[in-house]
Amino acid sequence: MWPLLLLFLITELARISPGDVLKQASAEALQGNHQKVVDLLYPMLYPTSQMATRTQEIEAHRLLGTAYWFLGRRVEAAQEFTAILNLNPEFQLDPLVVPPGLISFFEKVRRDLSSRLEEIRRRRQEEERRRRMEEERRRREQMRRLMKEAPVMHETVTIREHIFIFNFFPFGVGQFQNGQSSKGWVLAMTQLLAAGVSLGSWYYLQYRYPDGLVPHDEVSLARTIQYVQVGSGVVFWGLWALSAADALWNYTPTSKSVKKKIVPKIAISPANGGIMGSMTWQW
Known about the structure:
Layout: H1 2-13, H2 18-30, H3 34-45, H4 54-70, H5 74-87, H6 100-112, H7 114-149, E1 152-161, H8 173-177, H9 181-208, H10 219-249, E2 254-263, E3 265-271, E4 274-280
Helix pairs in contact: 1-3, 2-3, 2-4, 3-4, 4-5, 5-6, 9-10
């Protein structure tokens, strides 16, 4: 009968999660139903643990060992507390939750296992040290690989000498030399426009009146065109003077330009029957 009952309990417990079983067992323990705690948790731990995490497994052994202790089954309680200490040698019972006698019993189990627990601590420290060394090795290897495959930043610095006489040239030449392209284009276009209007007006007058004689009825028109010619010429020369003054004010003997370019690294490795290369880009 007992095997059938145990099989039934295992089947029923398989339908609920380990966390639910722990909650139910904890509630039963608070009510003093220690045998019920044993019935709930023993199938979850033996023959193999069904707990999802180490924390759940430790809690299950704690509840089961505590139940055994209250039931007077000291050998089974010692086995459960031994399992706890094997999982966590530093585990402590909460004195606010369990009676002093249980704590004394637990500490006696700890003292009896002192040499084994020391070995567990040493082994875990060694495992932690190896784990950290392996993580550090992987990190360094990853950094070396990234540095090896990372593209190279090529920087080209060009020093250009400026020609002083260019400051006096028209059409924004001095501005272009000083690196003020926008200002240079404005001056160049306005000077070209003024020069074109002035020269066009002069050419029209020369073509219309080649001998310099203007008919009486065209005097007003000729005079207006002459004013446009002179005015646009004044604008041209004024802009030329302005551009020269501005170019001199902003003049520097040299200028520096920097060009940066990302160049991929080419990794070459031997291959069967030849050489295999790979190109790596990173932006």
